[in-house]
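Q: My labmate handed me this sequence with no annotations at all. I'd like to see what the chain might look like in three dimensions before we decide whether it's worth expressing. Could you predict it?
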Amino acid sequence: MQPCELFVTSGIHFANAEQALVHIGREMLAQGVVNASYPGALLAREAQFPTGIALDQHAVAIPHCGAEHARRPCLYLIRPAQPVPFQQADEESTVAVSLIIALIVTDPQQQLVLLRTLFGQLQDADFLDALLAAPDETLGELFRRRLFSLPSSPTS
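A: Here is what I predict for the chain of 156 residues:
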């Protein structure tokens, strides 16, 4: 997978998924990586296609929206202070999300590759446990080393 910009934050309190998504929209707009249309598109996409994913021991959310809302590719990794309720993908129930990974891509094909790679890596319970336990100052490096050191999968 191609490296991209990575933003990391930890310890923020969100009462619900909407608060988390609003935060992501504002932060990414402030960083200049998205267009003004991004915050609204992110909320609309999550309302229609929820991104909460229940894994073996934890839950994650991978919010994203169309590439036309991005200026440059990046990931925003958030480890909230407490789990945040997100609606589960393909389910009516909610999951308590311990890790939020916002995807911002400029190429729709890259989004599919990134989603597959992320989902595959997050299936590794040891890796997810390590992300949740890592000190704030090493969280980004641990994530970057694991995701961006993987061999690129060929595209057809």
